[in-house]
Amino acid sequence: MTSFEAGTTVTLKVDREVDFGYFLTDGEEDVLLHNSDIVGEFNDEEEHTVFLYQDHQGRLAATMMTPKIEQGTYDWVEVVEVKHKLGVFVNIGIRKDILVSKDDLPEIFDLWPEVGDHLYCSLKTDKHGRLFGKLGTEDAIREVAVKAPRTAFNKNVSGRVYRLLLVGSFILTDEKYIGFIHETQRVREPRLGQKVEGRIIDIKEDGSVNISLLGRSHEILDEDAMKLYSYMESRDGAMPFWDKSDPDDIQIRFQMSKAAFKRALGRLMKDGKIYQEDGWTYFKKEE
């Protein structure tokens, strides 16, 4: 049984040179260091620290490239390929991308990471010794997390989603606060590994935070008012809706509640941009 294990770093000496690289040994076993995995000047009289992985043929190989993660260490790694039948591949800093199995990803494909997203990962091997990405556990996240100060309340933050639950999503912010986004504090559920931006709406005793991805009330009002204004622009400055319109009709046309619709109308009227008459809303002509 081999003592070498993929996903680990070892220090070996050169056993022999071949046309395509060098075989390195610990005195009992050897492993190939391909020429394409050599970094910098190579002295065959010295020992070399290398990372072990499986090459594209599934053979154990060595590289002098330094990976971002190995077994027992965690970091954010970028998703570079998505394979529906397999999972997602992440770039750990070596020539071969590593698979995070679909068995470790959300059941709903739309919540899988996309190319460019980042996952907090380590490495693991299966019973056959094959190397896979391992998603960060809650304990692993807490090891790097810091407590949010009380002064962080209502601050804007950004971070990446590392865990999905039915009731909401967990993120680690750029400041390394653990944040929870309740399902009521988002428009749609974010993907695993997605970068999101929100604001802190509560700080818990343990230093973790609650985050809302919804805009502040004035920001939402501005967005709704702009939606109505843009709609009226597309209709030459008039629309067959006003503050007494049916709530269902408003929801179907604008995807907003009647209360939000009336607030947006009120904002536009206060700014002197519109007026209402006989069930219609019109642009005000500039004097």
Automatic annotation (TrEMBL):
InterPro entries: CvfB_fam, CvfB_S1_2nd, CvfB_S1_3rd, CvfB_S1_st, CvfB_WH, NA-bd_OB-fold, S1_domain, WH-like_DNA-bd_sf. This is S1 motif domain-containing protein. Pfam families: CvfB_1st, CvfB_2nd, S1_2, WHD_CvfB. It comes from Litchfieldia luteola. It comes from the Bacteria. Belongs to the CvfB family. Residues 5-65, 152-214 form the S1 motif domain. Gene3D superfamilies: Nucleic acid-binding proteins, Winged helix-like DNA-binding domain superfamily/Winged helix DNA-binding domain. PANTHER family: CONSERVED VIRULENCE FACTOR B. Transmembrane segments: none annotated.
